[in-house]
Amino acid sequence: WYQRRVHGKQWYQRRVHGKQWYQRRVHGKQWYQRRVHGHVISSREETILYLSKCFERLCQERDPQAFYHAVHIGVHPLTIVFRWMFSAFANFLPVDQVLLLWDRVIAYDSLVLLPLVAAAIFVFRSKDIMEAKGEEDIHDIFDDGRKLMVIPLLQHFLFATR
């Protein structure tokens, strides 16, 4: 009797609340996969290693001179932007810009926008990078992101002619 009642209840929940049941099931599985794979070093998409590689590739393609100048000075560009990407820019950009970025991340269902924004900021500041003489100058250039605007940066980075 107990088993029929439990199984009957599950059937009722699946039948009546099918969409909600399905969503919980799918999202639970995705959460589990992200949780399990989050503690493993992997180059799969949506991991920080993959996002870091995307950032480096984008910077080297768009402005190799600034990228290698920063490396020559002694500051690898990834050391600057890693904490931005890891926190999804919450500790660097103003709140309204962070929310605009997160809206797009959710809409596109992809974290690849994070290295894209990081590369856009890096390329946007490339003239300052080329004038930098030392490690401290590079850190000063990227110290404050309060005046940056995500959407114009992305538009310029993606659609501007070189």
How would you explain this protein's 3D organization?
The protein has 162 residues and is an all-alpha fold. The protein has helices at 2-16, 18-37, 48-62, 64-73, 77-86, 95-108, 113-124, 126-131, 135-141, 150-159. The longest helix has 20 residues, at 18-37. The protein is globular, with a radius of gyration of 22 Å.
Chart the SSEs and their pairings.
Elements: H1 2-16, H2 18-37, H3 48-62, H4 64-73, H5 77-86, H6 95-108, H7 113-124, H8 126-131, H9 135-141, H10 150-159
Can you summarize the main beta sheet? none
Sheet/helix structural class: mainly alpha
Question: How many helix segments?
Answer: 10
How large a portion of the residues is in β-strands, by DSSP E? Answer: under 5%
Average pLDDT, all residues: 81
* Poorly predicted parts: 1-6, 15-19
Name the overall outline. globular
Order of helices and strands: HHHHHHHHHH
Q: Write down the Rg.
A: 22 Å
Number of strands: 0
Distance between the termini: 73 Å
Helix content range: over 70%
Search tags:
162 residues, mainly alpha, 10 helices, disordered N terminus
Question: In short, what is this structure?
Answer:
It is built from ten helices and no strands.
